[in-house]
Specification:
alpha/beta; Rossmann fold; six-stranded parallel beta sheet; about 25% strand; 2 domains; about 350 residues; Quinone Oxidoreductase, Chain A, domain 1
């Protein structure tokens, strides 16, 4: 089978497509013919060596993928040959709070474990979930990390309810999923971006208000104005250190800031006084367990939610797709079509 590996060092130029023998199948494992993979910013950071410079190579990158079961181990009970499935980012976080055993949290696809950018992968059945029937494989491949992260932020930790105000930063994969889920929950959604064209697309998806942060650098003031001076109930914080000061000013007293990304920097000074004096909740979001993945999929199926795929690339153009994600011009998700040469 063909697979992409990161070998000999970090950087896009170190990605190589190789022929690999398929691994044997243990009794509790399933073999998946991968149909599509989606890209996360974590994948870019991994490939260029920022996410974990000590990562052991070679590595098959990418955390997210969807496909069809082509073989099952003798002890497998949850799946049959022919089932359409997706892999879970965490192989062993199945339910409840994040496990205290840090080794469990380190067992993740796309680093340090081999990921989904291969024609076939073998996964334990516990780390596999069924694909919503109304989605194609490219759409389904966007769910394991980006969509589940948004779901966890809004519902597992943020307890979003109808009528609340949600601020979504940007128009990448997590942010667009948060916009869709926010609308599903009956929230009032405000989206920020530096692109008027992207903001127009966000409004077409149901955003109630939009803010161009290039034209309005202190966008928190606009959030306050739009909410009658109160502020937002929740902020989806994907920028990190560079955008946190605005998030702190945009959220209402007692509100929640879900910390998801570091697109604008991972380190910086944090003013703790607003957090203390306004009783704010800063909540880190670590994707989520299989239990919530399956709950999210039930909601996606019930409401026929359609993930937004900006563009798909053939399997042979995986490095090009990763570079495109790093450039940041996409809206929603970028996908690699593994079944396409």
């Amino acid at each position: 089978m063909r697979a992409w590996i990161l070998d000999g060092g970090f950087g896009y130029e170190q990605l190589r497509m190789v022929e690999r023998d398929e691994p044997p199948l243990s009794p509790d494992e399933v073999r998946i013919q991968v149909k599509a993979c989606s890209l996360n910013y974590r994948d870019v950071l991994t490939v260029v060596g920022v996410y974990n410079p000590r990562l052991k190579l070679p590595l098959v990158p990418l955390s997210d993928g969807a496909g069809v079961v082509v073989e099952v181990g003798s002890a497998v009970q949850r799946f049959r040959v022919g089932d359409r499935v997706m892999g879970c980012f965490f192989l062993d976080w199945l339910t409840g709070e994040p496990p205290r055993d840090l080794d469990i949290l380190k067992r993740t696809l796309g680093g340090p474990l081999d990921g989904m950018l291969a024609e076939r992968v073998v996964l334990p059945e516990r780390a596999v979930v069924a694909t919503p029937a109304h989605l194609d494989d490219r759409q389904a491949s966007t769910l394991p990390c980006a969509a589940l992260t948004a779901w966890s932020a809004l519902f597992r930790e943020g307890h979003l309810s109808p009528g609340q105000v949600l601020v979504v930063q940007g128009t990448g994969g997590v942010s667009i999923a948060a916009l869709q889920f926010g609308r599903l929950a009956g929230a009032r959604v405000i989206v920020t971006s530096s692109s008027d064209a992207k903001l127009e697309r966000a409004r077409a998806l149901g955003a109630h208000e939009t803010i161009n942060y290039r034209n309005t650098p202190e966008w928190s003031k606009e959030v306050r104005r739009l909410t009658g001076g109160v502020g937002a109930d929740q902020v989806i914080e994907v920028g990190g250190a560079g955008t946190m000061p605005q998030s702190l000013r945009a959220v209402r007293p007692g509100g929640t800031i879900s910390v998801i990304g570091v697109l604008a920097g991972a380190a910086g000074e944090l003013a703790l006084t607003p957090v203390l004096m306004q009783n704010l909740k800063l909540q880190g979001i670590l994707v989520g367990p299989r239990e919530h993945f399956e709950a999210m999929n039930r909601a996606i199926t019930l409401h026929q939610v359609m993930p937004v795929v900006d563009r798909s690339y053939p399997f042979t153009e995986a490095p090009t797709a990763l570079k495109a994600l790093g450039d940041g011009h996409h809206f929603g998700k970028l996908v690699i079509d593994v079944s396409e040469a």
